[in-house]
Amino acid sequence: MSTSDVAITYEPFKEIIVMEKTHFNTPEEIARFTSVIAGGKLAGVYWVDGVVFLYFPLPATTAAVAKALLETRRVYWTFVGYAFMPKYAQTIETKEKMIVPVVDISADPILRKVASWLKEQK
Questions:
Q1: Which of 23, 50, 64, 118 is 20 to 30 A away from residue 80, measured at CA?
Q2: Which is it for strands 45-48 and 51-57: parallel, antiparallel or unpaired?
Q3: Number of domains making up the chain
Q4: Overall average pLDDT of the 7-16 stretch
Q5: 82 pairs with which residues across the strands?
Q6: How many C-beta neighbours within 10 Å does residue 45 have?
Q7: What gap in Å lies between CA 114 and CA 85, rounded to an integer?
Q8: Distance CA 111, CA 90 (A)
């Protein structure tokens, strides 16, 4: 088989199902939450179009989740935490001096859609 025989297909998710969501009042609150759940390890958050967020996907380790992912192109997020942050910054620093990196992932069309949905949630 040569590389010319390889087909590349793009099939994005059709649906993201959010099972739990928490709106934090400030970027500092979500940074504090991120630091605590990471147990002192370096952990970051995403920023897209004025929303900073983190999410936990349900791992496709069970047959039911893998089937939903492959057959229906649905992905399940067990938790999404978010706050509004109009301007992008590379880090968020809390009053406790916790520093959380922020990744601008605005180029991702799916995550732009997620950010838009989160803005509607309030």
A1: 64
A2: antiparallel
A3: 1
A4: 90
A5: 23, 53
A6: 25
A7: 15
A8: 18
Residue 1 lies inside a defined structural domain of this protein? no
Q: Which of 24, 58, 42 is nearest to 102 (CA)?
A: 42
Q: How far is CA 10 from the centre of its chain?
A: 20
Q: pLDDT by residue (tens digit) across 76-115? A: 899 999 999 999 999 999 998 888 999 999 999 999 999 9
Q: Percentage helix, strand, coil, to 5, in the chain?
A: 30, 30, 40
With vertex at residue 55, the alpha carbon angle to CA 49 and CA 61, rounded to the nearest 5 degrees, is 140
| 4 in any annotated domain | no
Question: Which residues, listed in sequence order, are joined to residue 17 by a DSSP beta bridge?
Answer: 76
CA dist 30 and 23 (Å) reads 9
Question: How many other β-carbons are positioned within 10 Å of the β-carbon of residue 111?
Answer: 19
Full residue range of the structural domain in which residue 34 is found: 11-121
For 19-28, what is each residue's pLDDT tens digit? Answer: 999 999 999 9
